[in-house]
Amino acid sequence: MKDSKLWIAAGVAAGVGLLLLAKVLKPGVDVDPGFNRARLVDVVQVQQQPLAPEAQGFGRVSAKVNWQALSEVGGEVIYRHPDLYAGRLLLKGTELLRIDPLEYQLKLAQAQADRSSAQAQLTRVDQSQSNLKSSLELEQSRLKLVQAETKRKQQLFQQNLISDSELDTQQTSLLAQRNVVQDLQNQLALVPDDRLVAVAQLKVASAAVNDAERRLAKTVFTLPFDGRIGDVNIEQAQVVSAGQVLFEAQGMDIMEVEAQVAMHEFRTLAAGFTAAPVPGKFQVSDLNLAASIEVESGQWSSRWDATVTGIRQNIDPNQATVGVVLEIAQDWSQLDLTERPPLSQDLFVRTTIVGAPQTVLTVPARALRQSSLYLLKQGKLAITPVEILFRSGDVVAVVGSNEGALTAGDTVVMNDLIPAIDGMALRTTTAQESQP
C-alpha cells in the first residue's frame, strides 16, 4: 500500500514538471514594434453657416369659419334639403332649411300698411303747409285792402261825409281780417311740429317693415359658403323656437391649427425676430416665419404649407407651451383623395415652424453626446461641453460652453467611444491608410 502511494505522488510530480517545461519552451508571439494602438474613428468638420431654427409642435385642425345655423324665429320646418346630413359637401347659396313663413308674411303686410298710412299722413301735413301758405298770402293781400279802405273811411269821417256806424263797421271788418291772418299764421307755425311727428311715425313704420322683412328672410337658411355639414339637430315638420341651433357647417377653403410649441423652442424662434411688436403697426408676417403641417398614419404621410397668422397671448400652465396659430389654404380642385385628402375637423397634426436664418456653428445631430462633443485635437480625444442653440432637421447649431472652446473647422468624432477617456489616442480613416 505504501509503495502505491509513492508511485502516485511521483506521477503527479512528473506531470506538473512536464507542464512547466512546455510553458517555458512555448515560442512567444511576434510583436510589431510599429503597431499603432490609437482607436480608429470617423470625423467631420465644424461648419459655420446660415441655419434656420425649427420649432416642432402639435395641434388639431379646425375650420377657420365655423357657422352655426341659429334660429331667430320660431315655427314649423316645411322644407329640409335632402343632403342636409353630417359630412355632406354643399355649395354656397344652397337652400338648406325653410320655416313656415305665413305668420311673418302677415306681419310684413301689416307693417307695410302702417307705413303707407304714415306716409299718407306726412303727405297731408306737407299739403296742409302748402295750403296754409297760399291762404295766408291771400288773406294778407285782403288785409291790405281792408286797411286801405279803413284809412279812406277815416278820412271821410273826418270830413263828416260818413256816419259813426259806417266807420265802426269798417273797423270791425279790419279786426276780423287781422284775426283771420293771425289764425293762419298760428296754424302755419304748428306745421313743422306736425311734420316732425309725421316723419317720426314714418320712420317707426319703416323700421317695422324692415324688421318684418328681416324676420321673414330668417325663415330661409342658405349656406353662405362652400362647406361641409357638421352636426344636424332638426327634422322636417319639427317645430323650432328662437335661439335653437339647427345645424352647423364648416368652411373648407381655409383651415386653422393652433400649434402648441414648447417655450424653449419658441424662445429660439424669437431670437431671430427682426421686428419688435408695436401696437397698431405690428404684423405677424413681419417675423419672417415659415410653417408647414404634416399628417402621419402608418406608412402614409402628407404635408401642407401653412402661414403663421397669430401668436396667442396666454401660455399653457400645464405644458409650458405657446399657442401659434397657423392657416392652411385648400384648393379643392387640386386635392387628391388618396394621397392628399382634405384636412378635416379635429385632425391631429405635427407642425414645423421655421424662423429666420442665423449664422451659427453646426454639427450633425448624431455627433452630439448628450451636451458634449468629442473633438480630435493633435491625435487625442478632447471631450468638449457645448450648448445646443437649436435643431434644424439632422443638423444642430451649437456653441462652446467656454469661450473659444469650439470654432469653425474643429474636427468632430462621429463614433461612440466606449469607454471615452479624455486624452485617449485616436486616428482617422485617412491616418490608418497611411500606416505601413
UniProtKB/TrEMBL annotation:
GO CC, any one term: efflux pump complex
Signal sequence bounds: none
Domain of life, per lineage: Bacteria
GO MF: efflux transmembrane transporter activity
PANTHER family per record: HLYD FAMILY OF SECRETION PROTEINS, MULTIDRUG RESISTANCE PROTEIN MDTA
Protein name as catalogued: HlyD family efflux transporter periplasmic adaptor subunit
